[in-house]
Design goal:
346 residues; mainly beta; Porin; 16-stranded antiparallel barrel; 17 strands; globular
Length: 346
């Protein structure tokens, strides 16, 4: 506001004047030279799930911790080590039980990601170790669960002027040993390989972006594609995403999701859509086999604290009589990183 007043005042005097905003000084620059916190949140959720018989499968309170940081060998972070700590007692889970309701108390926090990240030249990035999955524009509905990671390596090329695609990603690694989320117990798998992925990604213009990939996992060949379109003209959605997968072999089949997102204001975001999943895959556990509608919202009560209700409802036939039918979650999250930035703590 002060900048606007300054410009108006200078114009009223008939003098040209350039006003520059003063950058906010970085807190503790001596620490940021070596270490950067990229995420630090703690959350709790109430989760209710029933099946087509009306039986309750889960009614429980859970908690989640997520912390991700980067140690930088040089000031520009061309060479760094990235680590992520989190809850969840397997590599496809991110929540622990509190002991309230279904399930016993779980208190473990594991180091799940730990990898060396190198950017020797601007177009190339190399990652090695316990690395997250690259879903491209696909979400965890038709792609992999956000909690899944592999032991292996990835090369990412970002040279759109020469190769047209904004990103070309090649991954190789081992996906397995599901009940051992601790990365230190999984380094022994670095010499094994049952997962390969080739992915391309492109932002065509300010309105359209897409990605496509081929993935081989333990003998299963799968193609995935997703396209996201900005639709500011629509009153009900700021963006629409269509994502899908095609399993080629074995057990060929198809699944897809249509998603719409709406930014209502600085405090409210909405999302909803329809999904059809035909296989048991490593996708988000909310989106199991069958056809489902889902709706979610995020309400930011302040800079650090938010709540997010989510409901997912199966429609039409489901694989078995005990398959999940209705799922409801109510999530409350506190973002420590936002608080640190706001109060200039870190």
């Amino acid at each position: 506001m002060a900048i606007i007043f300054a410009i108006i005042f200078a114009s009223s005097l008939g003098r040209a004047q350039t006003v520059k905003a003063t950058p906010t000084p970085q807190s503790h620059p001596e620490v940021h030279r070596w270490f950067e916190i990229e995420a630090l949140t703690i959350s709790t959720r109430y989760r209710y799930i029933d099946n087509t018989r009306g039986q309750t499968l889960a009614a429980q309170q859970q908690w989640q911790f997520l912390g991700r940081g980067r140690f930088k060998f040089d000031r520009k972070a061309k060479y760094s080590v990235v680590t992520q700590l989190g809850t969840g007692n397997n590599i496809t889970a991110g929540w622990n039980n509190t002991g309230w309701g279904t399930g016993d108390l779980q208190t473990n926090i594991f180091v799940k990601h730990l990898y060396f990240d190198a950017k020797p030249v601007k177009p190339i990035e190399v990652q090695f170790g316990g690395i997250p999955i690259n879903n491209g524009e696909n979400t965890e509905i038709t792609g992999y669960d956000n909690d899944v990671y592999v032991m292996g390596e990835r090369v990412v090329i970002r040279a759109p002027k020469q190769l047209w695609f904004d990103e070309i990603s090649l991954s190789n690694g081992y996906l397995g040993d599901l009940t051992r989320p601790n990365v230190f117990r999984r380094f022994k798998h670095l010499d094994r390989s049952n997962y390969h992925q080739f992915l391309v990604r492109k932002k065509v213009n300010s309105r359209v972006s897409f990605s496509a990939d081929y993935t081989f996992e333990s003998g299963i060949d799968t193609l995935r594609q997703a396209i996201k379109v900005n639709t500011k003209e629509l009153k009900f959605a700021d963006s629409l995403t269509f994502e899908n997968y095609q399993r080629l072999d074995p057990n060929a089949g198809y699944g897809f999701a249509i998603d719409g997102s709406k930014h209502v204001n600085s405090r409210v975001d909405l999302t909803g859509g329809f999904t059809k999943i035909s296989h048991v895959i490593f996708n988000g556990d909310r989106y199991q086999r069958g056809e489902r509608f889902y709706f979610g919202a995020i309400f930011k009560l302040n800079r650090e604290f938010s709540i997010a209700p989510v409901i997912i409802q199966a429609v039409g036939p489901v694989p078995t009589a005990v398959s999940p039918r209705t799922r409801f979650e109510f999530i409350a999250s506190y973002n420590f990183l936002e608080a640190f930035h706001h109060y200039h703590i870190f």
